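Tokens for chain A. Residues wanted.
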């Protein structure tokens, strides 16, 4: 139907057409290295993608797998599929072919839109009847189409897979309206993003954190700068400086590596740094404040809720906390019986809000375990003080039973991070020959520090100054990297029981 008669609730109309109608057509929408597109050019590329063979013939609501290693093309494909009233299933092009095919099948995708590398990984699926469209060298074409159906807000707009922090990822469907709620509750209120802002994200668009940065930028009429490749500290600092970024969205690992760089430039344009995806250690926050003028705010969100639902405010940061509830959300902290705990006590966090989904896509057993009477059980352990500030204590599945007491890995990690030699660390339970579990720490050192038994002993002594005799890491493992999901979350379940990390050095101290 003609655009003038289309359902204005379609998200792409809000993100593109309305911005152009407001006079922002010539403004930069997305910057990806040397590739820069205005709002008008972006809409044209999206309309061209809508005319790709096969896409227009799919029934409204059909899932389309998107596999792109180029983030600009990933954004164009996402917007085009949603504009057609289809569901954009965002997939990680770095997955192995078997895993990628599993997610396409699990999502029930009717077709796939891919870069050449992604298509090669889905060759087996295509041979068995999958509808595959390969786009090369870049997304777009000569024709543009506005005769497509525009999906209403009640229909799913896109599908994301959870990061798989504790195991198998799950598929999550979100509506067009969920993006607007996320914008109203967090993007416009907490981050206060406006048309003059230039946003940067180090996270990819196939995860909620990076995708929200895209949505926030376009919803505000702002500009999004996508991360350069390779993703090293020097290139990120240069990008933040040269593009005059005002708001950046990174995970704690990225902030740690930025601060370990030899040169930290002055960033007069930067007004806000946002951290999510993993708990922000207090020592890392304090290090940032010593070197960078812009405030760093921590928060927590999930793929299931799409939005950050607990966050510090730029003007009201409580160091060490995850912040307060974002408008539109309510929370409960419960014990093992599902009963609320007292202020200051640790329990499991349950959350609900405007972006709540009824369950996982095509996963009834996982849905029953995590979605309870309108609440989402995050499996994260939190406490909340009388001022409404929430404090993270780790994943329920990752706490360690040692000597009859429960040990929270995040508490041990926070202490380790205060040592001047530690760049990153992760704590998990390690079983001894007698079957008993003891806390162990995997440590990445800052540049200029060498692995040694003496340093391992110093790290343990440092922990003993602040922790009990059971809490300190009984084993220290030096490693060059810590296993993480693509979103930067530590995969502690891969560490538990491991003593064979590549090039590690481990020491048991009395």
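Reply:
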């Amino acid at each position: 139907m003609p655009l003038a008669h289309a359902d204005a609730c379609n998200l792409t109309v809000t993100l593109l057409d309305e911005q152009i109608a407001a006079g922002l057509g010539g403004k930069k929408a997305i910057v990806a290295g040397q590739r820069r597109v205005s709002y008008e050019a972006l809409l044209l590329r999206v309309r061209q993608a809508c005319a790709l063979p096969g896409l227009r013939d799919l029934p409204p609501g059909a899932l389309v797998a998107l596999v792109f290693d180029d983030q600009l093309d990933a954004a164009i494909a996402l917007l085009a599929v949603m504009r057609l009233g289809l569901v954009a299933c965002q997939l990680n092009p770095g997955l192995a072919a078997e895993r990628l095919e599993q997610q396409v099948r699990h999502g029930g995708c009717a077709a796939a839109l891919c870069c050449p590398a992604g298509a090669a990984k889905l060759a087996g699926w295509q041979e068995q009847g999958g509808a595959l469209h390969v786009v090369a060298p870049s997304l777009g074409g000569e024709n543009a189409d506005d005769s497509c159906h525009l999906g209403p807000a009640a229909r799913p707009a896109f599908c994301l897979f959870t990061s798989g922090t504790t195991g198998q990822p799950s598929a999550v469907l979100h509506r067009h309206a969920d993006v607007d709620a996320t914008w109203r509750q967090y993007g416009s209120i907490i981050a206060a993003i406006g048309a003059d802002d230039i946003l940067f994200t180090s996270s990819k668009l196939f995860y909620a954190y990076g995708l929200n940065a895209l949505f926030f930028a376009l919803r505000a009429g702002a500009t999004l700068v996508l991360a350069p490749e390779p993703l090293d500290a020097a290139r990120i600092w240069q990008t933040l400086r040269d593009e005059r970024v005002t708001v950046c969205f990174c995970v704690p690992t990225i902030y740690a590596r930025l601060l370990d760089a030899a040169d930290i430039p002055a960033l007069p344009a930067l007004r806000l740094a946002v951290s999510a995806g993993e708990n922000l250690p207090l020592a890392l926050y304090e290090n940032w404040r010593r070197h960078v003028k812009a405030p760093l705010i921590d928060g927590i969100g999930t793929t299931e809720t799409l939005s950050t639902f607990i966050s510090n405010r730029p003007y009201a940061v409580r160091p060490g906390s995850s912040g307060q509830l974002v408008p539109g959300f309510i929370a409960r902290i419960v014990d093992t019986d599902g009963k609320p705990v007292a202020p200051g006590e640790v329990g499991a966090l349950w959350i609900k809000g405007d972006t709540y989904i009824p369950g996982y896509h095509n996963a009834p057993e996982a849905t029953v375990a995590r979605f309870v009477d309108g609440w989402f059980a995050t499996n994260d352990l939190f406490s909340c003080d009388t001022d409404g500030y929430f404090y993270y204590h780790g994943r329920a599945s990752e706490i360690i039973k040692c000597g009859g007491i429960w040990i929270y890995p995040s508490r041990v990690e926070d202490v380790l991070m205060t040592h001047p030699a530690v760049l990153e660390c992760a704590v998990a339970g390690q079983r001894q020959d007698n079957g008993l579990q003891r806390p162990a720490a995997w440590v990445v050192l800052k540049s200029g520090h060498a692995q040694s038994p003496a340093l391992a002993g110093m790290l343990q002594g440092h922990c003993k100054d602040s922790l009990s005799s059971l809490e300190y890491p009984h084993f220290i493992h030096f490693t060059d990297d810590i296993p993480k999901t693509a979103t930067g979350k530590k995969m502690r379940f891969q560490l538990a029981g491991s003593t064979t990390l590549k090039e590690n050095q481990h020491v048991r101290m009395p």
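Residues 321 and 454 are 33 Å apart (CA to CA). The first strand starts at residue 28 and ends at 32.
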